Amino acid sequence: MSRTGVVTFAGGPLTLAGEGLSAGQQAPGFVLHYFEDGMQTITLEDLKGKPSIVSVVPSLDTPVCAVQTRRFNEELASLGDGVNALTVSCDLPFAMARFCGSEGIANMRTGSDYQDRRFGEDWGLTIEELKILTRAVFVLDADGRIVYSQVVPEVTDEPDYDGALGALRELSA
C-alpha cells in the first residue's frame, strides 16, 4: 500500500510506502546497522525495558536533519540513561558515525536502514520517489508500544520537539 500526498518536499506531494503507525500500536520489529568498533546491529528488542525516542531523518548530512539530531541530543542529556534515543536514516553507518563524532552527539544512538530498507517499509516512512526516509518522531514505552507519533507533513520542516519530549518525559518520570 502507498499513501500519496501525506508528506511534501518544498510543497510538492510525495508518496510514502506502507501504512502509517499511530499511538497505541506496537512498534514493528527492526534490524538496523551502526558502526562502532566494527559493524553492529540494533533491534527493537534492544530498546525494550526503557522508554525510547526514535527520531527518523532523511539524511544526517542535511541542515534540518542535523538541527533535529543536535536538538534531541541536547534535550536528552537531562534524562541520562533512563531512556533510549535512536536516530534512524538510510545513511551509511560509517557516515552516521562520522557525523555523530564531529557533532559531539553522545546521547543518541544511530541506526541505518540502508541494507534492506525494512524499517522504512514496515513503519510506513519510505519516500518512494527518493528512496529515503521521511522525517518523523516516535516515542515508545518500555514494552515497545507507540505512545507518540509524528510524521512531519513538510519534509523540510522540523518536528514538534516539545510534543515528543513531553511524551518521553511523562514515561520516564
Short description:
27% of the residues lie in helices and 31% in strands.
Describe what you observe in this structure.
With 173 residues, the chain is an alpha+beta fold. Helix content is 27%, strand content 31%. The chain has helices at 44-47, 63-76, 93-103, 118-122, 161-172, and strands at 2-9, 12-17, 31-35, 39-43, 52-56, 84-89, 109-112, 126-127, 132-133, 136-140, 146-151. The strands form three sheets. It has a five-stranded mixed beta sheet with strand order 7-6-5-10-11. Strands 1-2-8-9 form a four-stranded antiparallel beta sheet. Helix 3 (93-103) links the parallel strand 6 (84-89) and strand 7. The longest helix is centred in the middle third of the chain and has 14 residues, at 63-76. It is globular. The mean pLDDT is 95.
Q: What is the arithmetic mean of pLDDT? A: 95
Number of helices: 5
Radius of gyration: 15 Å
The end-to-end distance, rounded to whole angstroms, is 38 Å
**Which residues form runs of ≥5 with pLDDT under 50?**
none
Structural class: alpha+beta
Shape: globular
Helix coverage percent: 25-40%
- Element string (H = helix, E = strand): EEEEHEHEHEHEEEEH
Largest sheet: 5 strands, mixed
What's the multimeric state?
A: single chain
Strand order of the largest sheet: 7-6-5-10-11
Number of strands: 11
Strand content: 25-35%
State the main characteristics:
173 residues; alpha+beta; five-stranded mixed beta sheet; four-stranded antiparallel beta sheet; 11 strands; 31% strand
Topology:
Elements: E1 2-9, E2 12-17, E3 31-35, E4 39-43, H1 44-47, E5 52-56, H2 63-76, E6 84-89, H3 93-103, E7 109-112, H4 118-122, E8 126-127, E9 132-133, E10 136-140, E11 146-151, H5 161-172
Parallel strand pairs: 5-6, 6-7
Antiparallel strand pairs: 1-2, 2-8, 3-4, 5-10, 8-9, 10-11
